[in-house]
Amino acid sequence: MIITLIKEETTKEYDEKMKKKYGSIEKLEKILEKTPKNILYADLENWKLLLENPEENIRLEEIIITDNLSIGENEIKILNIIKNEKPKSVREIALKIKKDPANINNKINHLAEEGLISFEKGLKNSKIPILNYDKIEIAI
User: Fold this and answer.
1) 41, 64, 87 — which closes off a domain?
2) CA neighbor of 65 nearest in space, from 139, 130, 117
3) CA–CA distances in Å: residue 17 to residues 38, 43, 59, 66, 91
4) pTM reported for the whole predicted model
5) Could you state, in chain order, the average pLDDT of each consecutive group of 10 residues for the chain (140 residues)?
6) Would you give the end-to-end CA distance of the chain in angstroms?
7) Rounded distance between C-alpha atoms, residue 73 and residue 57, angstroms
8) Cα angle, residue 138 at apex, residues 10 and 91 outer, rounded to 5°
9) Range of the domain at 26
10) Is residue 1 part of a domain?
11) Same domain, 72 and 133
12) Nearest Cα to 104, choosing from 92, 117, 124, 90?
């Protein structure tokens, strides 16, 4: 099974992300003067290209290949809640779909192991589930 995780960004969003990461194009160019060409070179070239074409939107894709992913109705509900309602805890998701929190926690951990979601640290060591993609395409 091939899963494609898709994130679409505007040029402005990409520019802000790159500024946060590197400061400016000039700073990135100085970093590259001191290091051999590597992935930073691709970041620089992409950044320059997008600034030359500000009307372009960016489609970022991450591909996961797996044989053991099982996505049922509950997993789809969980992904939709995470994406659209931005819950602050696994318990909040369990309450929304009226399921046992331990069962939902297992499903969420499995989705994280497969790379479909990630976690941010919340209050008191809680885990906040995050879905950073706009689309998930599954090819069987």
Assistant:
1) 64
2) 139
3) 19, 11, 14, 30, 31
4) 0.69
5) 88 89 91 78 86 84 82 90 92 92 91 90 86 87
6) 5
7) 32
8) 80
9) 7-64
10) no
11) yes
12) 90
Q: Tell me: do 33 and 47 sit in the same domain.
A: yes
* 117: its two tokens: 């979601």
Ramachandran bin of 21, using left for φ above 0, alpha for ψ from -120 to 50, beta for the remaining angles: alpha
Query: Under a CB-based contact definition with an 8 Å cutoff, are residues 18 and 60 in contact?
Result: no
135 closest CA partner among 63, 69, 70: 63
Domain boundary among 32, 48, 64: 64
SS3 state of residue 74: helix
Q: Cα dihedral angle (45, 47, 53, 54), rounded to 10 degrees?
A: 180
CATH number, domain at 81?
A: 1.10.10.10
**Distance, CA of 54 to CA of 65 (rounded, Å):** 33
